[in-house]
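INFO  loader      accepted 1 record
INFO  loader      residues=293
INFO  predictor   begin
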Amino acid sequence: MKKALLWCTLLLSTHVCLAASPYLLASKLPAADLSTQLSQVEKKLQAEGFTVIGRHTPKGLPTNASLVVTDPAMLEAIRTIGGSSIIAAGIRVGVQSDGTVSYMNPDYWFRAYLRGPFKTAQTPVKAIQTRLAKALGEGAGFGGDVPEADLPNYRYMFGMERFDSPNSELSSHASFDDALKAVQDNLAKGVGNTSRSYEVVMADRKLAVFGVAMNDPADGESGWMNKIGADHIAGMPYEIFIVGNKVFALYARYRIALGWPALGMGQFMGIINTPDAIRNTLVRVAGGTPAGN
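INFO  predictor   done
INFO  writer      dumping tokens
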């Protein structure tokens, strides 16, 4: 919030400062167990034409979960754009055991994930926003504010990673099929104490994305999310994606900051070891060799 307000004060008075929040609150659900609440939300999303492709229920966060859905028009836009846009295939909705429901703000996340080509996908993005609000209700935004113009090239602060930072690459394989098999097999085996939350494969375009639950008690998401805000559950799961014969995952100094842009520097320092721990875990999932091994 403070960074967004500072940016606004620096703009010329003839310009309008538009900022976006990463999440939107939905209508609260009646009290029920988490599984029942997830089923209720699934039905609402399906009624609005979304396809449910996964549930994210990481260990160590028993009161928080997320649903991941896809939208046909958005998938077609991603197919046309190609490349790293595949990371935007999953649309995330968070559910908490107290009945709180939230969902990713499409305008925020697609600006960041699609970057330059965002303008070619604005029609499906707006339709997704409208249908999510119809299905779940639309309340206040939360999680921080980032100027819209900053999102395509977002970074938390000077010197930190952006979307396309080189250390987002995890491994390289002989072919797309080999890369896909490595990730699928390693998630099936639970390498690094992980599991698959969802999967979208566009084999004809040599693109794929997976949601990864990181369940390790020490290095998994429960440890660091409980320090910085598990109410941002609609920011998860973490993605690992394939473009051609290469496997990527957005480096966590970018990916966590994008999902928690209001973090103070003290909070960020409290999870200082998390980015490398996440990368080492996902390198193993990608079929590579973690640092130090």
